[in-house]
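Ticket #4471: structure output looks truncated?

Reporter: J.K.
Steps to reproduce: submitted the chain below (438 residues) through the standard prediction queue, then opened the result file.
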Amino acid sequence: MLDGEMRSLRVGVLVDLERCDTAGGHVKCWERIAEAAARLDVPLDLTIHVQGRKAGTQELAPNVRFVARRPVLSTGRWRTLDVGADHTDLAPIHPGLLRDLARYDVIHTTDAYFAYARTAHLASQLWNKPLVTSVHTDTPSYTRLYAERILRRLCGGSQRLANWLINNRRLPEKFADGMLRKLKRHMRRADWTLVGAQPEEEAGASHHMSILRRGVDIVHFTPARRNRDWLAQAHGIGPQIKVALFVGRLDEGKGVRLFTSALKRLIDAGEDVVGLYAGRGKERDWIAGQLGTRAILLGQVDRDRLADVYAAADLFVFPSEIEISPNVVLEAQASGLVSLVAPGGGGRFVAQHGLDGFVIGSRDPNVWAEQIAAILSDDARRQVMGATARAEVERRHPSWEQVVLEDLYPIWRRACAQRQGNMENYVPAAPAYSRSTS
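Returned output as attached by the reporter:
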């Protein structure tokens, strides 16, 4: 049992995705949290379990580590299930993980559906461990999107059968509803749930719920890094050419086709603009076919280069509608960029439409093209809005250290105290931390 501050609180976090260079925002979020925890002086022993092609442990600090485990039944084994998303583990349980979970004071899941979540629930019951969960991905919406792709692939050339299954039988919607039910059930089982928005906005809200904010490193992501020389040298993009940036998986789920279609309309109309894409995905060839030399496809970009990419762009466009808390929007804003986003994606990070960014509800590429053209043609307004975006990030959003100290650590301690019936000794306040912008 945890005895006050006599020893560190041992927390095991379960991320049922592969940790690799091409991993998405879910994995990157926990990488930033782990790095922040390693910098802090707080009684916490944090282990983050991820998938890996090879098993092993990476120590970030004596009290913070990643443990990679080989999946038992990866979705990567089935070509039909390869729809561009990160692979997860479909096994009913992960035996090796189950054995390790007995050592923790708190178990924290980051999904509600797959092998790690099922293993965590069993461990919580077996050893009376508090279970905390956090919501990082809109899995029901992605299920609807990917189910349609899989069904069309399974039906081969029979579009009639595919349309009947999708439109008449509504199988994608039914699969999505099933995932939503699983999410609600998992949230009810948990001692505490952390969500990305106000709790009342979340389906299946429970009385033990709070917000897990997304941090942003405003020292790393900054307008001060703006330097167009590398774009000119590597890609021939002179300072007079406007650069619209997309960061993320090159997948229709992220709205990359909408962005590309909008750019194509501008280019065809004679606008001097290029699309800069940072990320990998199945739509790469389609993008290149649409924009030709006006598409700069950087592929996967490391974090240091990514900060330069943001700062070199003139505008950030992210039309994804199915996001919980897209950190790329915060990084773009911290870099002094105006952001064009969708209501169900990065819209929650825009303080006011027209003040620090634009929230576009339409899925018509012409509407996006008009807004992109309007803001790219108004340098003065774009500079003012970019400076406002940076100021709003500094004012409204925490550092990753604050996320650990204010959002996670107190909840882990509270869940442990509640499960032990020791709430009289629970002190909710986290250690003080001051954010520096220099």
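Triage note (M.O.): checked the attachment and the full token line is present. Residues 199-205 have pLDDT under 50 and may be disordered.
Status: closed, working as intended.
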